[in-house]
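G.,

No rush on this.
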Amino acid sequence: MEKTHAKIANPRQGTTIVRVAVPIPLETLFDYSVPPHSDIPPIGGRVTVPFSGRILVGICVERSPKDPHEKPKDIIESLDIRPILSKELLDLAKWMSNYYFYPLGEVLATILPAQARKGQKLEIKREEVWRIKTGYAASDRAPRQKELLKFLETKGGQATLKEIKAEGFSSSIVKALSEKQLIYIKLPEETYVKALRIRQEAKVPVMNEEQVAVLKNINQNPDGFVATLIEGVTGSGKTEIYLRMIEAVCLKGKQALVLVPEIALTPQTLSRFKKRFGPSGVVTSLHSDLSDSERLQTWLKSENGEVQIVIGTRSAILTPFKDLGLIVVDEEHDSSFKQNEGLRYSARDVAAKRAQDLGIPILFGSATPALETLNNAEKGLYDHLHLKKRVAGAKLPRVKVIDIRGLTLKAGLSNEMLKALELHLNTGNQALIFLNRRGFAPTYLCSSCGWIKTCRKCDSKMTLHRKPDVLVCHHCGCKEPVRSICERCNGQQLKSLGLGTQRTEEALSEIFPEVPLIRIDRDNVKSHLQMQKQLDRINEGTPAILVGTQMLAKGHHFPNVTLVGIVDADSGFLSSDFRAPERTAQLITQVAGRAGRAERSGDVCIQTYQPDNLSLRSLIKNGYGGFARKELGIRKKSRLPPYQAMALIRAESEKGIEASTFLSELTNTINGDLEVLGPVEAPIARIDNRYRYQLLLLATTRAKLHDHVSRIKLDISRISNGNISMRKMKIGRTLKWSIDIDPYDTF
């Protein structure tokens, strides 16, 4: 994929040439010369270079190339004396560039933290941590010295200087104890966990027979790369398996990476891991809520081996490690592992590639595995282990389907659902009402003429929100005030139709005025700290109604929730998107799994207008496993992923004709054994005043698909340069296009 400029036979005599990947949307790598008496950058190190009137920070990917470019410019500065990207990460970046058809310079820029991309100095900022020396005696010390030693004991034997001073201890007391060799500054390598510490300070649960069998199976695997799918019902104790595996890896001095799908899960998972593995510094997190400085420090400490366990969301898969020994992908089915703009990578798939390259094991865990993962297990590429029972004897919830055809509903809730709510609340429990639609109402219309409020920038309806009252487009973010007069007929018969979490919350607060309501959606939970605050309220355990979107469905443990009510089970099963039934079944199964996870039994009520829907019936009768087998059969007959490889080429422009013409011209160049669907308008044709078209490509093998897409990329260059109608289009400005390999969202 990498292009080069014209070759030169005799580059400047005695000058070192380096090949640099710069963060621009071109696949070309650029050669630069290193001025005399300047540091020669290491491969994997950063350099500042002049580029088209700008100064950019790039990565040196090769030194003294055999085919240097003509008349290379001088680099400005070599920023690093050692590689900041290892050969392993550079190789992974090259693979991602080739697999996802994305420029290497921009892949590398995606890997680097923001401050590293800006050329800032990379150094670990260490907090001074003081630790008690083993076997110390405090009996004959001065009172304040004894108090400091006691304080350190309460902190697990160590504390930062900042914490020590915050307790009122002066530097002189610290110095006195240090001179007497009773305390000392902890070194970074001392963060490694010791088995005795784990066993003495953490309450390790006793595993049931299924967990023991699964762990035994995993441990019987030979050293090296082995991919294992742990399919376990909700509450079956998958995390305990992860913890045992991670413990074994850490005791060998290696590191572990745990990927979770949402920021919302990070604090909960981080807390559980810290309780198990002890001191801060051993376990850390990486997610988008961290500041640029925090992300850089975690990145550097992981690369230096100063943290053992990194828990993070999608981008954490690109973290450098000194000695990575295990990767865990929890809730591996989740769509948030797929990046849907820019470098459109799947963190789950990149994790598998990285584990394979490193020769280390990888665990995929889910109660509702992705069909691609199940297919890999069926083909024998992954080990497939099962946890069919909940831990501590907890029972799976009872499921009841409520046929709401012809019924009068109150804010979308049937009398049967409301009675179930009342019953569970009266017995001192909590209930969760699930509706995967935020806002107050998805439609705002005039009952006189039928006018519907749509977004002026998108081909979509605007959603009514309350407190404050505003109409919001959930695609472009456009906001407009709520007006009381119809824009078409000037009538005043405006009303809101449909349900959102705000409307459900309002109705339930009127029906159950004495019961606390806790709503969790993207409107009122925008950070992991806000999420933690809401989770703390839930975990108080008092009777409450939880109302929320899929943010509540993913991996949370709510021991006091005994009822889950699913308000609308139909929309996903009726979607034209071929992945919609799979996503809907996963979501229903996951949210239903929040009920009855402790000693209290649970119930699940599912409201539907189509109780005879084949997908819903299959899910209820046969569980997710039975549904997945049926859905895989449908995919196979339809020649859809995972049985064919798929790519989606998208084009968008301010004038729809440009995007349509671009893809049509491209289609005319495609020959061979490739199934081509389109070009067609995207299901939502206009977003933010840009018209969207797409071209779907299917091939029997991934190799064939990549071969075709490689040729298509060459055709794009030829068409844009040689076709008269195409030359008028300013590709990259008015017309933008992208390639999405293994698309998760075809909308």
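When you get to it, here's the other one too:
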Amino acid sequence: MMKKMISLLPIILLSVVIMTGCSQKQDYINVIPADAYIVGSADLAALVEKSGLLTESKVAKEKVLEVLKGNLSNEAFQQVEKVLGSPRELGLDLEARLYMFNAANFPYPVWVCKVGDENKLTTTLNLLAKEHFCETVSKEKNYQFTIIDQNKIIAYNEESALITAAFNASDLEDIGYEFEKLMAQNSQNSIEKNPGFEKMRKMHGDINFMASLAAVPEIYSQQLKSSIGQPHLDLSDVMALGKLDFDKGKIALKFEYYTDNKEIQALLTKQAQATKSLNEQFLSYFPESSLAFASIGANGKAMYSLILDNKDLRDIMPSANSDVAKTIFDSFDGDISIAITDLTMSESSVFVAYAAINNPNILKTVYENKANFLSRGEEITQTGENEYTFSMKGFNVFFGIKNNVMYATNSKKTLDNICKDVTPSIKQAPYAKEIKGKNFFLVVNIGAILDLPMMKMLVGLGGKEYQMYYNLASKISYLEMSNTTDNVSEMELILKDKETNSLKQVVDFARQFIGL
């Protein structure tokens, strides 16, 4: 009976959420500790509405009641029926955002819900206790609680409910002690005093999140600090703030770094100065059918300054601290763009790249000083005026300067069309309008990749499992990632169906997959 009830609880809660109305602002998050290094929140009502499940609330209610009728006592069944008829009878306010956090004393996720009516929640839990789903509700100084399956706890007071699962049942006593302190908190000693958290709350995404870089394992944080040449920095002062939205035809992720640390702010500002806004200079040179495309607005002088500031990079590239290296970096001033235009099983991926330069003699400088840059087995040969070939174990890259633009490609066929407009070009691509104002932009044309004969052959050989993955991917048009000069990053998964909400498309596919 107990296992059966555990499996039925998510169905009950989902049905309650489905019949819940629009969210209102609620203040119930004082229980989140100030040292929480990961915090997330979700608008359950909005997510359910976007999923399309609201249109099926009546059917869902009838199905749940039909399943439960033979598995609950009459008293418990009447309570569940009452809750499904009026979700507020549950005692939890599921119109408010659901929060989750990790903190120093809580390495496992803790969920935070708004309590709508403490007495009603107690009544609901005690009825479930009679069905052996949980223990009878007990009282502590600042809260009431119940235990589920020996290692899961629901603790609540008149404002907030905390839900978590311990690694071991023996940890519950320590959790209860920590919950006691959290329930006694006010806004002055909770996460609300964190300005980054307040900024996260104002993002108003379907899902919001903040994550301190202190959450990064030490081995990786040391690598990160070394990569930026600042091994002494305290990464706990830096947070990633972001939101995830499910819109019509796309899933959008947006995030940025936030810190009050003046030293880190200065470092982030200096890094941002290493790039500039794209001027879309080379879009007409790339075919719209390109499998992948990336472009960055380069400020070569600022990039070189960052290298000089980074001891680890200077140790890896001893030649970086030279007049030649400075001349090369200083020559890049504007867009650097690259695209993969073809992919086969028998040859390397075909790519073509362009770069805006302010020094027409840059390649001559590279050629004359090639001994400082090449490793064993590598060679650069001059094939014409401002034309060169880089060779390494049978792999060749042809590069040069034409019309004051540097180019590179690994395809001799592409050489005939270097610096020439193509039709249709990326200028006509649906994502072209998103490039303006960015300092970095990347797109992966998933639709074009799936249309490759090689991909269709692999799917045919892979059987039903590969076909399922192919069918899922075929709903995607392209993936784009971008960054702006104020360090705001975005990632968007663009779907082929532009009229249906992306979450509903995901739910519908999941239903097909599991046979519902």
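Confidence is low (pLDDT under 50) at residues 1-8, 21-26. The chain has three domains: 2-191, 194-272, 283-430.

Enjoy the weekend,
O.
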